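# step 3/5: fold
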Amino acid sequence: MPILGYIVLAVLVVSLISLIGVVFFWVNQKLVTKVVPWLVAFAAGTLLAAAWFDLIPESLAGLGEKAFIWVVGGILLFL
């Protein structure tokens, strides 16, 4: 099987898993009101972790010490 076949198969499997999750939440509306705030918080934490572990070290390499000022300013602006 060529590499493109593995890629398409992986995308289909992940999409089906996501579809199962959507159907589960669609059937159980009471669970949605309890779980969605936790999922949103998890997504926000994931984005912040990606910024801290990937983007901020790159900015340090490019901006030097001024990067900390921009990072703190961005966090304060975000809050």
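# step 4/5: annotate
The two ends are 49 Å apart (CA to CA).
# step 5/5: archive (pending)
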